[in-house]
Amino acid sequence: MKPTLLLCALLLLAVGASAQRPSDRALIAKADKLIIVTTPEWNSVKGRLVRYEKRGGHWEQLGGPVEIVVGKNGMGWTPALPPEKDAPVKREGDGRSPAGVFRLTQTFGFADSLPVAKDYLPLTPAIECVDDVKSKHYAHIVDRSEVPVDWNSSEKMREISLYKWGVVVPYNMSDTKSGAGSCIFLHIRPASGNGTAGCTAMPEGNIEEIVRWIGKGAVLVQMPEVEYANMKTKLGTP
């Protein structure tokens, strides 16, 4: 690449990065509930989750850290703008959880209703999350009784016991990219303690508490410890 073209490319990346971080910071600044998930390294499966609430303009921690597992192969940046060129990038079927900042509002579970949750989805046998990259419903949760079925692969959510309680992580649900990954949730941890296909999982009591606590919504910040330490000042997080 010629020097001039290389400089232009670097400038475009810089502009893109500066555009994304203030957006994340604004999202966090408006929130009153915050979940921080970190792991030791990109390929780590085990990590911890800490919850915060904003009180008097300051973030206050709620309880102690919760042990969690992420994808069986660790984490990967969202593909839109990986902040590090050598870091892994999330793809469909890669066994990685997405790293980034996400607004959480929708919860789900086996209970027929949950008045304390603003946007609770009771899982019926017809509710599925589509992971077929060829489907127009790819990366979305649908009621198969209400839409034309154009997929060959999906998660039948009611049949998955780990989804008794859960929170939708809206990764790749807006401006969906085919093959970038789908069906990302916070949910109950497998009994084996192993990593997931790409979700973040924890003990049942902890995820149930989070489902009931979220209310109008919360923001999830999820990434390896070093990346979080480098970014938390810009993000305005604890």
Structure description:
This protein is an alpha/beta fold and 238 residues long. It has one domain (3-235). Helix content is 21%, strand content 32%. The strands form three sheets. It has a six-stranded mixed beta sheet with strand order 3-2-1-14-5-4. It has a five-stranded mixed beta sheet with strand order 7-6-11-12-13, with helices on one face. It has a three-stranded antiparallel beta sheet with strand order 9-8-10, with no helix packed on it. Strand 2 (46-55) and strand 3 form a beta hairpin. It is globular. The protein starts with a helix and ends with a helix. Mean pLDDT is 90; it is low at 1-21.
Helix proportion range? 10-25%
List the domain count as a whole number. 1
The secondary-structure class comes to alpha/beta
Kindly report the average pLDDT value.
90
What is the strand tally? 14
Biggest sheet strand order reads 3-2-1-14-5-4
Span between N and C termini? 41 Å
Give the amount of beta strand, in percent: 25-35%
The poorly predicted ranges are: 1-21
Order of helices and strands: HEEEEEEEEEEEEEHEH
Overall body shape: globular
How can the largest sheet be summarized? 6 strands, mixed
The Rg value, from CA coordinates, equals 18 Å
Number of helices: 3
